[in-house]
Every structure is written in structure tokens, then in C-alpha cells.
Design goal:
Elements lengths: L4 E5 L24 E5 L8 E3 L6 H14 L6 E5 L1 H4 L7 E6 L5 H15 L3 E6 L1 H10 L1 H6 L3 E3 L13 H7 L1 H5 L7 H18 L6 H12 L1 H8 L6 H21 L2
Parallel strand pairs: 5-6
Antiparallel strand pairs: 1-2, 3-7, 4-5, 4-7
Helix pairs in contact: 8-9, 8-10, 8-11, 9-10
């Protein structure tokens, strides 16, 4: 959007969004003159939803990211996830982009542009506005994601909840697969967090990331929580212990959605 330009005749009036001529140019630019207006730098406001105080560095970085993304004609942008809640312990910057364009090609284009511009890791999700509104009603993971965010526009997240059994069963597929196979410890961490989020959704409990992390820490214990979060290698015996916790949560959720 930077470089946007339009031509307009100077007029006298009180219309909204007028561009005012400096007094020192009154003799040079007068009503009826044809002028050009060009966007040099996009001004970006930040809208916070249940976000604790973050550093000025992060605020300025988010403004720069949002300003940079304007050229892609994205309707609305959100920063979510651990970048907002952790001081330094985050792997990437989670971006949700509301746009009519979507798909792997579009996401790769934006990701490449972002990494080239900022030299940072990003995790992108592009989604249509109507689809987002639907997911906020039926998807525990989406609701948890939008429990805290910073956006370039105001956004009122819906609090209507719909129990979609098919969608919930789909969310259980990955945790169920983990009962039979061994993968990296971070995968178990993320999927146990997923199950806690689903159960809390069904029980109308808090979906705040910090609250869910506290519950996960209670289940795993401080040491194992840190190991799995950092993707440390675990023994088969320890993985079996985590699988038992996964199995327990899956059974509890299935009981709730019968």
C-alpha cells in the first residue's frame, strides 16, 4: 500500500477526511488546483484483547509487521500465541490473517516476504471471515487462540458456543494416533494441551493459554513439562506414561460428547 497515490482538486469545505493545506502554502496551492497525494508510510493502530503488558520493542515490531502486510490487501491481522505471553520463550510469531485469498501458494508468498523483511520465524494461518466466525463457535482451539490477541482493527469475538460432535471427533484424531506411536516429545506436549482445551471448552472453563499451561504442568509435573515443551528426548517408559494421560483425557472428552 505504500506508494499509493491519487489526484484531487483542492476545495474549500468541511467534509470528513479532508487534507489540509499548510498556511505557508496558501498562496501557492488554492481551491481548484489539481494536486497529487501519495502515501509514504502507513499509520498502524494496535487493538489489544486480554493481553498483559508487553515490551515497547514487541509493540513496535507488531506495528511494523502489520504495516508491511497492508500491501497484501489483508482485511484484518492478528498476533496470537506465545509471542504475547512469553518474554523470550517462543519459537515463532503466530499470525492469523483474515483474507479472501488463501491456500498454500498465498501463504508461502506472505511467509517468504515476511522472513526476508524481518529475518524472523513466523507461523501463518490464513482464513476467511465467515469461516473464522464459524470456528469461533464450534472449535475449542480457535476460541483458545483468540482468548488473547493484538489486531490492527477492533474485533469482537463471539461467545456463542455450539457443540459440533463431528468437529470435536476430528480434533481427537491426532491424540488418538499418539496412543500407538512414538514421536518427538513436543508433539505429546501440544496434543495434551489440545485435549485440556477441548475438555475445558465442553465444561465452560477458562481457555486462557496460561490457565491451560498451569493445568498441563499439574498433569506432567514441573520437570516433564519443561522437557516436553523444549522437545527433549524421552525414554519409551516416559512416553508410555504420557500416553496414559492422553488416553485418560480422550476417554473423559468422549464421555462428555456422548
Amino acid at each position: 500500500m505504500q506508494g499509493l497515490m491519487f489526484r484531487k482538486k483542492v476545495s474549500v469545505g468541511t467534509k470528513f477526511n479532508q487534507i489540509y493545506i499548510p498556511k505557508e502554502l496558501n498562496q501557492s496551492i488554492q481551491p481548484g488546483d489539481l494536486v497529487e497525494v501519495r502515501l509514504i508510510e502507513k499509520s498502524t493502530n494496535l487493538y489489544f484483547h486480554d493481553v498483559k503488558q508487553i515490551s515497547e520493542f514487541k509493540k513496535e515490531l507488531i506495528k511494523r509487521i502489520f504495516s508491511f502486510l497492508f500491501e497484501f490487501k489483508i482485511e484484518q491481522m492478528f498476533i496470537v500465541g506465545s509471542f504475547l505471553s512469553e518474554k523470550t520463550d517462543y519459537n515463532d510469531i503466530d499470525l492469523v490473517l483474515i483474507t479472501d485469498e488463501s491456500g498454500e501458494v498465498f501463504e508461502k508468498k506472505i511467509y517468504s516476504a515476511l522472513t526476508e523483511e524481518f529475518g524472523l520465524k513466523f507461523h501463518l494461518l490464513t482464513i476467511g471471515k465467515d469461516n473464522l466466525e464459524k470456528l469461533l463457535k464450534i472449535c475449542p482451539l480457535t476460541r483458545s487462540m483468540f482468548n488473547n490477541f493484538i489486531s490492527n482493527k477492533e474485533f469482537l469475538a463471539t461467545y456463542e458456543k455450539i457443540i459440533d460432535k463431528n468437529h470435536l471427533q476430528m480434533l481427537l484424531m491426532m491424540p488418538e494416533d499418539l496412543l500407538e506411536i512414538e514421536l518427538n516429545s513436543r508433539v505429546y506436549f501440544d496434543n495434551l494441551r489440545r485435549l485440556i482445551t477441548i475438555k475445558n471448552f465442553l465444561l465452560n472453563k477458562n481457555l486462557n493459554r496460561e490457565k491451560i499451561s498451569e493445568e498441563l504442568k499439574d498433569i506432567l509435573g514441573e520437570k516433564l513439562y519443561c522437557f516436553t515443551k523444549k522437545d527433549e528426548k524421552l525414554s519409551s517408559e516416559t512416553i508410555s506414561t504420557i500416553q496414559k494421560q492422553l488416553s485418560k483425557k480422550i476417554k473423559e472428552i468422549k464421555q462428555l460428547i456422548k
